[in-house]
Design a protein that fits this description.
With 98 residues, the protein is mainly α. It is 53% helix and 0% strand. The protein has five helices and no strands. α1 packs across α2 and α2 packs across α4. The longest helix has 16 residues. The radius of gyration is 14 Å and the shape is globular.
Length: 98
């Protein structure tokens, strides 16, 4: 999941783009993540993304971001000042994650 988030924030587009980004950044990723089987394949990313429920991901991601703020009075954490690409779900009428 973290690789998908990092890749999308870096402008990767879909499972193939995520896999390419991960391969290009595998040295950095291996310094920060345990990747016993190496970088997942494009098909693995595709299968993972199919299983993720957008509403559940949105809640979890928002909770995680709020936890980064801790007890501060700050209520906004800017990642890059943009709306996250492809974080919307038109089928379930969910807007993009900001």
């Amino acid at each position: 999941m973290l690789i998908c988030i990092f890749a999308v924030l870096a402008n990767a587009d879909g499972p193939a783009g995520i896999a390419i980004w991960a391969k290009l950044n595998q040295t950095w990723l291996k310094q920060h993540l345990t990747l016993e089987n190496g970088i997942p394949s494009r098909d693995t990313f595709r299968r993972f993304l199919i299983l993720v429920r957008p509403a559940a991901f949105r809640r979890c991601f928002a909770t995680w971001l709020e936890s980064l703020l801790g007890d501060t009075k700050i209520k906004l954490l800017s990642i890059d000042g943009k709306t996250l690409r492809r974080s919307h779900d038109k089928k379930h009428n969910l807007g993009p994650l900001n």
